[in-house]
Amino acid sequence: MGVSWVFEAEQTAKSVERILEGIGAELMGQFQVDVIPYNPATPSTDYATNIVMHHSKCPQSTFSICPKTDFRVSPKAVCDRGFDLILGKLAGGLVIDNAGKIEINGNEYNIHSDWTVRVGTATQGTTVKGVVVEVEYDPTVIIVQCREMMAEFIKQVFNKYHETQPEIFKITEKPERYSTLDTMWQYLQIAAKLRKKT
Q1: pTM of structure
Q2: What keywords appear on the UniProt entry?
Q3: CA distance 131 to 73
Q4: Per the structure, how many domains does the chain have?
Q5: Tens of pLDDT, residues 102-118
Q6: Strand (E) positions, the chain?
Q7: DSSP-assigned states of every residue in 70-113
Q8: CATH code at 96?
């Protein structure tokens, strides 16, 4: 996994896919991301909602984040899929919020070997909430090495979205390693916005 930039697109998934196919992208398969809130059984300001996420690129992993004010201070973990089974046993403390679950399903494209672009339709239950695009630059895991190039790629391909960089791009000035949790944080933030859409 390289460095990813996730954003909500204003176009339909088909429109985005046509843009990608127009620049020579090859369809590689499908992808799925889900974002599932687990709320405290009794409302409390002491305990935060735990967000459990899965990404088809990491099929044996579960990502868990308790969102706070920003990424750096939010408790987070990467677990194996057995974590989902443990959550079921914690029903006395954490209750799954099925109504708040966001699923993103779509297609994965490869562009000139170095770029992977995932385009998916986000749904909450049976309601379509929007289109989410993940642009991944595969050759590096260091944000400062590729963030300007990624902004240029997004500007050239989509002619927009390049000015709203992900939070992790803005707060990283040193050559730190990017991880899948950074990608999942971006999906979490987008899912929170999508839930509020009517």
Answers
A1: 0.93
A2: Activator, Nucleus, Transcription, Transcription regulation
A3: 28
A4: 1
A5: 999 999 999 999 999 99
A6: 3-9, 26-40, 50-55, 61-65, 76-80, 94-96, 102-111, 115-124, 127-137
A7: SGGGS-EEEEETHHHHHHHHTTTTEEE-GGG-EEEEEEEEEETT
A8: 2.40.320.10
